[in-house]
Structures are given as structure tokens and as C-alpha cells.
Amino acid sequence: MVRDIAEQLKARFSEMGVEVPLEEIEKKLDVLINEFRVPIEEAKRSVVSQYVRAPKSADLVKVKDIQSEGRWVSLKAKVVQLWPSESESIAQAGLIGDETGTIKFTKWAKSDLPLVEENRCYMFKNVVTDEWQGRYNVKLSRSTEIIPLEEDIEVGSLVEEVMGAIVDIQSGSGLIKRCELCNRALVKGSCGEHGKVEGIYDLRIKGVIDDGKIVQDILLNREIVEMLIGITLDEAKEMAAEALDQSVVLDAFKEKLIGRYFSIKGPRVGRYVLVEDIKSAPKISDQEVKKLITETEAL
Amino acid sequence: MLKREVAKRVFALEFRESNMAFKEHDDQYAPQYLLTPTGAKCNRIFIVGTLTEKEDVGTNTEYWRARVTDPTGSFLIYAGQYQPEAAQALSSIEPPQFVAVVGKPNTYEIGGEIVTSVRPESIQIVDADTYDLWILDTARQTLQRLKRLDEGSEDVTKAKEHYSPNIGHYKQMVLDALKTLSKGAEEVSVIDLSEI
Ligand SMILES: [Zn+2]
Question: Which ipTM value was assigned to this complex?
Fold first, then answer.
């Protein structure tokens, strides 16, 4: 039984970015429960407080300074975006940001913290940093305090750079139509807001770039698409008209992009990087190969 | 929203020597992984190589079996009606041809032996430069995994317990792959035909 509780606590600690050996937790629980006859709930509380008590007030840092995991920090930031919750254990998740960039946050349901609102600024006291697939994020737990701020924070966009292979081009890419009233992409000729509308043609690519360690959704607007593929919007419309099928444009995009290496650069907005610059990866150099051979031989 | 899985880079030799498939949860929709001897935990892989053979082995519907080679060996690719785009691509591409394949590792058992193959999500024709980039990329990522074999991460520990990988063997694999990229040999064999 003590083992089960210890396992539970260990999982909870690691959710908070705190790694504690199972045996250590088990031993502490065992002493409290079996030796000192502390009720289970109290014993749990006691052990939790030993590990997850944040420092009285963690350092106030900027988003760009978050470069390690498992660190307690405080942030003054604006809620840029809230995302639909991925699981019951998460109360809220999204992006917060300050002048230096944005970072993902997760607020545990068990934290009992007040709800935050988009576009409002807060002091997030005592959050713990975490890393997932090479990107940092912060977790808001019971130790966190959220204080609404009156001031406004101008959120800077972090320019992201990825060099990898494009592994997917998603639906909604290619020759698309947008609503003439609100610019939303139409789905089956219909705008989510305005219903059936005539629509204006546009070119867009929603893709996925992958470097073997991280995957990143990318968005390419018409200007970038025209330059990259070498097909203008008018030419794309002609292609579609000739084939009596809009999907020929998408197929042409896929042919030129999927499975090839590119380097991309642009600001992150939500889950996407809005690509402002994209280049084919340069050919490999003899020097790179030789360097890697030397490195391998040294293993 | 489910997070998309990264496409890992592994050479054919290491892929063919992998036989440890697992799920992290019992849930039927839980992602399936293949753990390789150097500790790459693959739910998806990205391959560039030469399509050398293809055959429609289906009885009633099209079912393509293809072979994509890299400097270390070959990947088996199977695509049927549930991989329509990839099956379409295989029916139209004539080997030999450089292709890029994004797909899911798959394992099946034949006579007690586990065979690995790839269920492609997409297959596209690419060029020789892309093949070079992939070899370099895969060599680099394999080397990084080899260097991390003495760390105690979960994947590495599992891989070591299951395979007891021979580091020298995979080191040689990386070197063999890299040596196909060095230009030295080519330069010597250029003959100026105008002089003959
Ligand atoms: Zn509209």
C-alpha cells in the first residue's frame, strides 16, 4: 500500500519536474504511516510539502532566460493564447509571453488556481520550468501564485529557426478560398462565421518540418509559396481549371516539398511558425563529412 | 490535441536488427513504438534511399511490397489500400529512383523471428543531394545515440537490456555510410575523354 502511494507521489512530483527516487518517498511514508501512525492523507501531505515547496519567492526572470528544466522561477507575462485542454488533469494550457518571447504553460487541475484570461497580464509567482522535445515550458502548481497586473506587456515574438525535412503537408494547403468578409479559409465553400460566400482564391501551405528531435508546424503564405514553388496564384488557378481539380496544385506542392531538407525562419504564433524565410538545405560539404568521420572514429 | 510524433533517423541495418515493439499504455489507440539497438524510440521514421524493387503482391486489391536501400542495407516497405497515397506513388514510380519515405515502423513474426518493415504515409521522388543530406543527418543522429549509450535514460536502459548492442558494429555502420559520401574516390576516376 505504501508502495502504491509512493508511486502516485513520484508520478505527481515528476509532473512538476521534480525527480525523487521511489525508495526515498516510500521510506518517508513508511516511517510516518507505520511507525508514527500518521493518517495516510496527512502523511502524503507531509511528504509532498518536503519536496514541492517552492522557494519563498523564486527569481523573477524573462521568458528568454528559461534555458533549463526543473528550475523555480517567477514571470510577469501576458496570456497570449489559451488552448483546449488535452486532459482532465490539466485545468488550462496555452502560451504566455513577455517582451523577450513566448513560452507554453500548463496549469494542473489539482493546483486550484484561478482561471487566467487571454490578453490579460499576470505575475506568475513560483512556476517550475520543464522541457519537452527540446522546448521549454512552465508548469503552474499548488505552489504557484497568480497575481493580476494592471500594466500591459508588449509580447515579443521569438524568431524560430529549424533545419529539417518537411515530412507532411496538411489538408487546407494548396489553392484555397478565403471569405471576402473576414479572410477566414473556407471549408467546403463555407465560412465558419458568414456561411456560404463567393470567396477569394489564395495559396497557402500548412506543413510539418521535422529534424529528428522536434516537429514543428509551419505556415507559408502566398508570397512565400509563390517564391518557393515558382508557381503564381494565377498559374495555380489555371492548373486547377485545366485539370478540373483543385488538388493538382496541392500535389505539385507535395512533390516539391515532402521528403526534402529546408531551413526555415520566422516568428512563432501559437502552434505555428509563420515562415518568413525558407531555403533548401545547402549540399553537404566534404568538410562536414570528414569531421563526422573523425568524430565517429574517436568513439 | 495529440502531439505529432517525431520522425526518427535510423539506417536500414539498425532498423532490420530491431525487434522490440511496445506500447506505453494498454489503450488500443496508444502509439506503438519500435525501440532500436542504439535506443531510438520510433513511432515514425524518415528514410531517403533508392527504390530498387517493387511488386504488387496483392490478390484482390493492390498491395505493394518495395525495397528501399541505403548504404547499410534495405528497408522493406508495404503499402495497401490503407496507405492510398503511398500505394499510388509506388504504382507509378519506376525503380531505380531516389525516394523519401515517411512512415510507421511495423513488426511481424515469421517462424519465431521478428521482421521489421515500414508502413508508409508518403513516398516522394527526391534527388541525390537529398540522399546525401539524409545519410549525413542519419549518421549524425546515430552517432549521438551511440554516445548516449552510457547514460541511464529509460530508452537507453531498455535498449541495452534487450539488445546488449555491440557499439563497434554500429560505429562501423556509421563509418561505412559516411565513407560513401566522401568525394576522394570519385575524383580519381574522372577521365578526360577529349584526350583519347
Ligand atoms: Zn467570413
Answer: 0.90
